[in-house]
Design a protein that fits this description.
The protein is of the alpha/beta class. It has nine helices and eleven strands. The structure holds adenosine-5'-diphosphate and magnesium ion. Magnesium ion binds next to helix 1.
Length: about 260
C-alpha cells in the first residue's frame, strides 16, 4: 500500500521584486513547487539567488508581488496575489525558523530563549514582563531535552558555543505545534564538527516527529548527506528540483558558475 502523504508546502508562481530608490531587483521569478509532509529539502543557489527571500516568503515575512499565486502551508493560505492571509498567526504556529546567526537573546538564560518560541508575536519587552506558566516551562524543557541541552537550561545563552546556540534555536523552533522547519543557512557559521552535530540533531528530530524541512545550505556534501531532495535557484528562478543524488558536476558548475566561491564539496 502506498503511504498517503499530504502536501505541506505549495508555492505557485512566486515572484518578488524589491524596489529601492527607483531601482528594482527581481529576487524571485515564477517559482513553483510543492513539498510533501516529512520531506527534507536542501535549498541551493549562489549568494543573491533568492534563497532567503523564498524562506521568508514561506513564513509570511516577505510579501510576494501581486500576480503571484497562492502560497499554502499545511493546506492553509500564507499569502495570495500579494496579500498576506488574515490568519497568518495561526499558520505561523506550525512553522519554526532557524537562522545562520541563531538570533538568541544572549543576556537571557537558555530556557527563556526557548519560551520566546511560544509567543513569536511579542517583542522582547513584552516577553520580559510575561510570566510563563508551569505548563509552558515544561514544554520548553521538553524541547531542550529533545536537542540534548536540558542540563544547561538555566545557563546564560551568551556563554554557549555556536553549535549549542543553534541547538537552542532548534528547541525554540520546535516548542510550538511545529510541522515545518525553515532553516536559512543553519550551519554556515559553524565549524565542521558543530555543523555535523547541528544537522544530526535537526534531521534526527525531523525524522522522529515527521517534520518537513527546507534548509538553505552552502555545502553540497551536507545536502547529499541529509536531504533526499534539492531545490536550486539561479537568479531567482527555479533551476533544479529533484533528487539530491542526481545533482551532477555539470549542473553544479552551471548553477554556481565556473568560479565557485559559494559552494563547497
Ligand atoms: N530587503 C531587500 N531590499 C532590496 N533587495 C533585496 C532585499 N532582500 C534581498 N534583496 C535582493 O534580492 C536578491 C535575493 O536575495 P536573497 O534572497 O537574500 O538571496 P540569497 O539568500 O540566495 O543570498 C538579491 O539580489 C538581494 O540583493
Ligand atoms: Mg540568504
Amino acid at each position: 500500500m502506498t503511504a498517503y502523504k499530504t502536501t505541506m508546502i505549495k508555492i505557485d508562481s512566486a515572484t518578488k521584486t524589491f524596489r529601492n530608490n527607483g531601482a528594482s531587483q527581481l529576487a524571485l521569478s515564477g517559482v513553483s513547487f510543492a513539498v510533501q509532509a516529512g520531506e527534507r529539502v536542501a535549498l541551493l543557489g549562489s549568494s543573491g539567488s533568492g534563497k532567503s527571500t523564498l524562506i521568508r516568503a514561506i513564513c509570511g515575512l516577505e510579501i510576494l508581488d501581486a500576480g503571484s499565486g497562492e502560497l499554502l502551508l499545511n493546506q492553509k493560505v500564507v499569502q495570495s496575489n500579494g496579500n498576506l492571509s488574515k490568519n497568518i498567526r495561526q499558520v505561523r504556529n506550525h512553522i519554526g525558523v532557524i537562522f545562520q546567526q541563531f538570533n538568541l537573546v544572549g543576556q537571557l538564560d537558555v530556557i527563556s530563549n526557548v519560551l520566546i518560541g511560544l509567543c513569536p508575536h511579542k517583542n522582547i519587552l513584552q516577553l520580559l514582563m510575561r510570566k510563563f506558566s508551569d505548563e509552558e516551562k515544561a514544554k520548553a524543557l521538553d524541547a531542550l531535552d529533545k536537542v540534548g541541552l536540558i542540563d544547561i537550561a538555566y545557563q546564560r545563552a551568551s556563554t554557549l558555543s555556536g553549535g549549542q546556540q543553534q541547538r537552542v534555536a532548534i528547541a525554540r523552533a520546535l516548542v510550538r505545534d511545529t510541522k515545518v522547519i525553515l532553516a536559512d543557512e543553519p550551519v554556515a557559521s559553524l565549524d565542521p564538527e558543530s555543523s555535523r552535530k547541528v544537522m544530526d540533531t535537526l534531521v534526527g528530530l525531523c525524522e522522529k516527529f515527521d517534520l518537513t524541512l527546507i534548509a538553505s545550505l552552502h555545502q553540497l556534501s551536507i545536502a547529499k548527506k541529509y536531504c533526499q531532495r534539492t531545490i536550486a535557484l539561479n537568479a531567482g528562478k527555479l533551476y533544479f528540483d529533484g533528487a539530491t543524488a542526481s545533482l551532477d558536476a555539470a549542473s553544479i558548475a552551471c548553477l554556481y558558475g565556473s568560479v565557485n566561491n559559494d559552494l563547497h564539496d
